[in-house]
Design a protein that fits this description.
By secondary structure, this protein is mainly α. The chain has 6 helices and 2 strands. A two-stranded antiparallel sheet has the order 1-2. Helix 2 crosses helix 3, helix 3 packs across helix 5 and helix 4 packs across helix 5. The longest helix is centred in the first third of the chain and has 15 residues.
């Protein structure tokens, strides 16, 4: 088997999530989640839309891992964010009618499901404050 990409295992002197290019980091982490097999795809992953205003399910078969990686990164950079706030981050406007597009929030169920799974593998957790926070293990894993 070929070695994993360098981003994962060779820890350079104090490079943190903040220093990485977001898209590259998310792609690498998504790949890591997929390979590690820790995150299970829900049965409905190929049927669900990420928001009510989307016309189709995501095209990328790995979208679930990508959303998980993206959420993990957001929690890392800004702890204390709850499901509701994430629905706004991943929200957008539908572009499929004559009417003016109004902002709509993303699907809560998907976000909540991803966050719960990140909780099960000890990346993200809840504490006595509100919202989701990165766990010590999660911080290590992401860095």
């Amino acid at each position: 088997p070929r070695p994993h990409s360098s981003a994962h295992h060779h820890k350079m002197s104090g490079v943190t999530v903040k220093d990485c290019d977001a898209a590259e980091f998310i792609a690498a982490l998504a790949e890591h989640f997929k390979k590690s097999g820790k995150i299970e795809l829900p049965e409905w992953h190929d049927l669900v839309k990420t928001a009510s205003f989307k016309e189709m399910c995501p095209m990328d078969p790995d979208w679930y891992y990508i959303r998980a990686a993206s959420l993990a990164r957001k929690v890392y950079l800004r702890g204390g964010t709850g499901v509701g706030a994430f629905t706004k981050v991943y929200g957008g406007a539908p572009h499929n009618s004559v009417k003016t597009p109004h902002f709509q929030i993303a699907a809560k169920g998907v976000i909540r499901h991803v966050l719960l799974q990140l909780g099960e593998i000890d990346i993200v957790g809840k504490n006595d404050k509100k919202g989701r926070w990165i766990t010590r293990n999660g911080q290590r894993e992401l860095d």
